[in-house]
Every structure is written in structure tokens, then in C-alpha cells.
Amino acid sequence: MSFQVVVLWSDALLFVLIAAIIGLMLWARRQDALRAAWGRVARDGMAMSAATVLAAFVVVGLLDSLHYRARLEAQPGAPAAATARYAVEVHSVLDALLADLRQRSEKTYSAPLATHLYSKEALADSAQREFPRLKHGGAHLGADLSGHEFDIAVRVSRGCAGGMAIWLLLVAAWCRLRGVEVIEMLKVGAGGTAIRPVVLTLLPILLLLGIAISLGGGYHVFGTDKVGQDVLYLSLKSIRTGLLIGTLTTLVMLPLAVLLGILAGYVGGWVDDVIQYLYTTLSSIPGVLLIAAAVLMMQVIIDTHPDWFATSAERADARLLALCLILGMTSWTGVARLLRGETLKLRELEFVQAAQAFGVGRFAIMRRHILPNLMHIVLIALVMDFSGLVLAEAVLSYVGVGVDPSTISFGTMINTARMELAREPMVWWSLAAAFSFMFALVLAANLFADAVRDAFDPRSSA
Amino acid sequence: MLAYIIRRLLYAIPILVGVNLLTFGLFFVVNTPDDMARMQLGVKRVTPEAIEKWKAERGYDKPLVWNAKAQSTAAFTDTIFFSKSVRMFAGDFGRADDGRDIAREIGTRMGPSLAIAVPTFILGLFVAISFALLLVFFRATPLDFAGVVLCVAMMSISGLFYIIGGQWLVSKVWHLAPISGYSGGLDAAKFLILPVIIGVIGGIGASTRWYRTIFLEEITRDYVRTARAKGLPERVVLFRHVLRNAMIPILTGVVVVIPTLFMGSLLTESFFGIPGLGSYTIDAINAQDFAVVRSMVFIGSALYIVGLLLTDISYTLADPRVRLQ
User: Fold this and answer.
1) Which of A69, A118, B83, B90 has the fewest beta carbons under 10 Å from its own?
2) Of all residues in chain A, what percent are helix, strand and coil, respectively (each to 5)?
3) Which residue of B has its CA nearest to A400?
4) Hey, what's the torsion of the CAs at B66, B71, B72, B76, to 10 degrees?
């Protein structure tokens, strides 16, 4: 094999999560009530369109979660039977797909689609300091730069055409499969199906993808950062970090919140007192400070035990997971309080009392009668928290208690770029790219979360 | 009422003790003072003497919770736990790494923090409630829908963007306000105006939507229908009836925040270079000044508990039916 598969802990958890979601979806298909609720989500055009955007982000995140270490070239003269050696660097499938973007780095800043470097340098063949040409951006133009704008226009239209073609192919294939007329499908107006907003959202995504691929072949679409890395590549890499923090944190928090919330509400007595004390104490500490304190301590642990981690990627990964764990430990209190209140209400309802009268055990009642009736709260909390966590990551990285500085994330991008606004002319592109990607992700998540809440919250459906 | 307040204050003690134990565990048990010293002095080249010196300077060279060498009560008092954690209850926070007294530092930095936080809070509350009432007044119209979409969009923008974008636009392009800095007295106003406005704008999205939900829940009640049936104009219904009855859920979310205004805002203060408690905390986190972080955790949770108490008291003011006993 020419590579060695590396499964980082966060990858494994992410795949477990995806498997769990698929399993739950299959299970929910067979439940009438759940199917009805999801049906309401599916009929909401805005929600489906947001879900499509989210799915695009998830695909990028998943591609970035398949890690491997490339095999090193055998030393000349080494025996053929020698054990294969692998690179220390851990790459992902996304890295391999974007190998061009990753490797074509410049010396320092360059503006989006530029052909020259941002800062002047003394060139060997001239007396004055000039803007040197970029090594890769616009290199195909040669010495004559008069065709720069024209070249960009050609590439944009070519990208658009490509995206459009792929989209038409997909639509045609889908309609063929379902036996629907293509025109019917795209008709604007009433009588929409769940698939139509998806198809319509797919068009801009594919157009943008086409333009990015076509422009990215010859230019740095979003420019380059201080050390000359392509900003588009950094933005795409940041998606995984954001997704991980948004999902794994809730995954950590949920079991704790569900277990303690239900126990406090159903068992009552001293158990209730202890659990209430626990979450009042935890929630009384200002969130950022508790996280900061815990992260500082975690840093001490990681720094004093360098031998725990084989590669730097593993160390960064451990820190990311620890951050999720800490965020989860500090944020379970809100959900636990909600669940406790709801359990208190459910406990008094007839079906629970009937179960008690039949002599069903405490834990069986909690598992079989209480828990299923709380799942909508859990689901709503899960989707509502996601966007907040993605935003929190950026703030925490700014405060200095976020992900490892070597991990590419929206927070680290913003943090390194924010000092550059003071420069003249301004270096705005890294910030703009990070904020736009983050905005798209969070907006899609918020819109989807709203639809899910409306569909599952019994109060709002009335 | 007084008995209730006293009892609630007594309830606060176990919570503060819990916070104290938690921070103690986090800062001294999970990691020993040796680990902290090694981290601060650099992991590789550090001599045992340097570690001992670092610990002695900060008083971390004592035993953790029980001093076997000392006599009687000193066995308990001459320990890290007593000198660093228990004494916080007396307002003694010790010294920061730069040798300054933390309690005094907090006293002087509280002013600038409040100067930003209080106007932001009041203005933000006023603006968000007005917008929410406006949206409710035009409910189920395109204006309402557009307003909600705008709120969701504004919620989805990172708080960092509001600050960075605002600083760039107002200070750098328009030259309307200084980009950062602070000065005492009335001069402070020109430094405060930008952070306050940015703080208000950054918070509008989430809070307007939240108030709108509260008002909409209230507006389906029977008393609203009665008020309309009496022929009251919608304006009066909203301001006189709905707003007042929505006070309880509003107070629940709002009053808790008031005492924590003292803590200042981490982001705003550090971006605008305002010497308040928020930037103090951030500097401490960046410099890994554990003593300061510990003190801020303690103060923050104490203020939060005060906030909970104030919330309960405010209920009696907003709703005469609520009796505290």
C-alpha cells in the first residue's frame, strides 16, 4: 500500500456520530409520529435549502476526516524487503484533492486573484523596489499581463458553464429515475416538493464550486495569507474543525444532561437536591472563565506529557477533543434543567402513573416512558446549540483558549488576520473569507434548527 | 421578605464553597504547582531550584490541604487551600504574577468596565424590546417575516465581525471615533460611544427574536382578546397589557445579567483597549496568571448568585401576586 490509514480519535467519533444519525433516521422512518414531524421539516422550503448547504459543508468535513500518512520513497540502495516508512505528516483526502492549493504557496500576502505579491521587494534585475510576480497566481499568463481580466472572465464563465452542466445532468438523472418531467420539477410557484428547494440550492453551490475550481487552477481565489498559504484552502480546512466542535460537544454533553436531568426530575428527594446543586454550581461560573480555566489546565497536562502523542496531528487532535469535552462539561446544565422540569411534568401524567401501578420498575419507566417523551427537547437542544458552538470556537480561539494554534479553524484564521487590518493597503481577504464561510455555515444551521424546532415543539405547532 | 433574602443568601454559601472546591481541584490537584511552574518557566530547561523559587514566590510551596508539620489550627491554615481558596471569602485574592494586589486592581478596573457594560445593557434592552414590539405589532405580515429573517442573519454573524468591521468602518474609513483607548472623566465618552453601539448592534438579533417569542406567546392569551373586545387600540393592548404581562419571562433572563455587568466584556474591552475587568481577565488568561483567573471565577459566580436573588426579588415588584417566603 502506498499509504497508511490514520484514524484520529475525532475522526472515529465523527464516523460513529454519522452512523448513529443514519441509524436513527432509519428507525425514525418506521415511527409514525417522527415521520410526520420530519415531514413538516421536509415541506419547509427554507429548511431543505439550509439542509442542502449544511450537507455540502458536511461533505467537505467528512472528506477532511479521512486521514492517512503517505508512504515515503524507498531509499535508493535499501533492501527491497525493508519495512515501508511513512511520512510524519498526516493528510486527509481533502488535502489530497486540494494538493494543488496546498502546495502552491507564495512568499507572503497576495490579494485575491492577484498576479503580484502584496509587498514590494528589491528585485535582482532592477534598481527600484517592485512588486514581484507571484510564483503560481497568474503564472500561466506569462510576461504579458494585458489579458489578466479577460482570462478571469473566461475562467468564471467556464466555471459557470461547468457547474450548470453538472447541475443539469444531476437534475435530468433524478427526473429520469423518478419519471418526472424536468420542466415540472423546476417550475416556480406552488405545489413544490421536498426535493425542489434542494435542487434549486444545489445550483448556486455547483456554480460556486465550478468557478472556484476553474479560477483556482490559475489563481489564488481568496488570496494568500502571511506565510503565503492559499486562503481558500484554509477556509475549507476550517469547516471540519467547526463541524467537530458543533457536533462532538453536544454528543459529550447529551448523555450527562439526559441522565442527570431525568434522574433529578423523576427520583426527586436527595438525588434531586444533589443534581440541582451540581448544576447551579457549574452554571454559576461564567462560561468563558470556566472554559479558560479548564483549558489552561489541560494545556499544562498536554505540555508536561509530550510522550503521549506520536505526531503533532495527534496532539492537536487531542486538544480539539479536550476542548469539546470541556465545552460539553460546561454546557450540559441548561439542557439538564430543561429536562428536569419536563420530567417533573411527565411524572404526574396518567400513563406514568399507570405504569407505576402495574409495578414497572423505576428505571424501566424512565427509559421506556419518560425518555421517549423528552426526545424532542434533546433534538431541539442539539440543533440549536450547534451554531452557537461554531461561533464560540472563534471567540475562544481569540481569547487564547481555543483549538491548538496549529489546527486550522475559523478562530485561528481570524486571530492571525485581525492584526493585518491596520496595514495600508488593508489585508482584508483572510478575514472576509473566514467570516463568510462561518456566516454561511451558521446561517444554514440556524435556519435548519428553527424548522426542526417548529416541527417538533408541541407548543409551536398549535 | 427579609427572612427570604437571608435564607437565599445562606443557600449561596454552599454554592460558593462548591465553586471554590472546583477551582481548587482544577488549579492545584489536577495539576500540581510543580507542573504549573514547569509550564511557566519553560518545560525543557528548568532546574528544581527554579521551580522551588517560583513556588515560594507565590506561596505554592505549602502542603495542599493539611500541614502535618504545623501545630493545632496552623495545620489547616498554613496550606495552599486555606491561603489561596478559603481567604477569597474574606475578599483577599492575593497577588497577581506582576506582584500587584488583585483586589485593588479589581477595584480600579471596575469603573471602565461598568462605563461600557451599563450603557450597552440599557440601550440594548430598550432597542431590542422596541423592535420586538414593532414586529409583534406587524405580526404575520411581510415586515414581520423580513424582521425575523434579519434577526436570524444578524445572529449568524460572529461577534468578532461586528467589532472588527465596526472599528474598521467607523474609525478607519469614516474617522468618527478613536479606534481604541480610554481616558478618565468625561473624555471617556468619545472612547465609549463606538464599543457601546457595536455591543448593542451585535446583540440585537438574538434578543429581538427572544422577546418576540415571549410577546407572541402572551398575545394569544384571553386577557388580550378581552382588551381588544373592549375596543382598545392595538397600541394600548401591546404597551399596557402585553408588555406588562411579559415582564416575568423578560426579568428571568435579564436581571441575572445585571450583577455580572461588573465583569465587563472580554472581547469588547480587549479590542478597544479599555482597562476594565474583561481585558484584565483576557490578559491573565494569555499570560497564564492562574491567581487572577481563579479570583475572577470566584467573583463571577458570586455575582451570578446575587443575580439569581435579584431575579426573585424583581418578580415581586413586577407581579404583585408573587409572594416570597
Assistant:
1) B90
2) 70, 5, 25
3) B286
4) -20
Q: Counting Cβ atoms within 10 Å, is residue A102 exposed (0-12), middle (13-18) or buried (19+)?
A: middle
d(CA B285, CA B281): 6
Of A284, A296, A398, the CB nearest to B15: A284
Residue B2: Cβ within 10 Å count: 7
Per DSSP, the residues of A83-140 read: PP-B-SS-EEHHHHHTHHHHH---SS-B-TT-SB-SS-EE-TT-SSEEPPBPSSTTGG
Please name the helix (run of DSSP H) or strand (run of DSSP E) that holds residue A70, with its range, or none.
Answer: strand A67-70
Q: Do B300 and A289 make contact, defined as CB atoms within 8 angstroms?
A: yes
Residue closest to A330 by CA, chosen among A404, A278, A271: A278
Nearest CA in chain B to A444: B156
pTM of the model: 0.89
Q: Which residues of B touch A279 (CB under 8 A)?
A: none
8 Å CB contact of A289 and B158:
no
d(CA B325, CA B320): 14
Q: Which residue of B has its CA nearest to A283?
A: B301
Are A105 and A227 contacting, i.e. CB atoms less than 8 angstroms apart? Answer: yes
Residue to test with chain A: of B285, B292, B294, most A Cβ within 10 A:
B285
Q: Among the residues of chain B, which ranges form H helices?
A: 2-24, 33-41, 48-58, 74-77, 80, 102-137, 142-155, 159-166, 188-219, 222-229, 234-236, 243-245, 247-254, 257-260, 266-271, 277-287, 290-318
Put simply, the answer to whether B293 touches A296 (Cβ < 8 Å) is yes
Do A2 and A71 meet the contact criterion of CB atoms below 8 Å apart? yes
Does B41 contact chain A (CB < 8 Å)? Answer: no
3-class DSSP string for A271-313:
HHHHHHHHHHHHHHCCHHHHHHHHHHHHHHHHHHCHHHCCCHH
Q: Phi and psi dihedrals of A126, rounded to 5?
A: -140, 155
The torsion defined by the Cα of B62, B67, B68 and B70, in degrees rounded to 10, comes to 100
Nearest to A281 among B18, B263, B293 (CB): B18
Classify A243 as helix, strand or coil: helix
Rg for chain B (alpha carbons), in Å? 25
The three cell numbers locating residue A305: 506529557
Q: Decide if A442 and B305 are in contact by the 8 Å CB cutoff.
A: no
Q: pLDDT by residue for chain B (325 residues), tens digit each?
A: 788 888 888 888 888 888 888 888 887 777 777 777 777 776 666 778 877 877 777 777 777 777 777 677 766 677 777 777 777 777 778 888 777 888 898 988 988 899 899 999 999 999 999 999 999 999 889 999 999 999 999 999 998 899 988 888 888 888 888 878 888 777 778 888 899 999 999 999 999 999 998 999 888 889 999 999 999 998 889 888 898 888 888 888 888 888 888 888 888 898 888 898 999 988 888 887 888 888 888 888 889 889 988 888 888 888 888 776 6
Q: What is the 3-state secondary structure (H, E, C) of B3-14?
A: HHHHHHHHHHHH
- How far apart (Å, rounded) are the C-alpha atoms in residues A333 and A278? 9
Chain B hits for A387, CB-CB cut-off 8 Å, are: 155-156
Please give, rounded to a whole number of angstroms, the shortest distance from the CA of A208 to a CA of chain B: 21
B162: nearest CA in chain A? A435
Cβ contacts (< 8 Å) between B263 and chain A: which residues? Answer: 286
Cβ separation B43–A442 shorter than 8 A: no
Chain B residues within 8 A of A398 when measuring between CB atoms: 160, 267
Task: Give me the residue from A300, A421, A439 closest to B157, CB to CB.
Answer: A439
- CB–CB of A277 and B15 under 8 A? yes
- Beta partners for residue B246, in sequence order: none
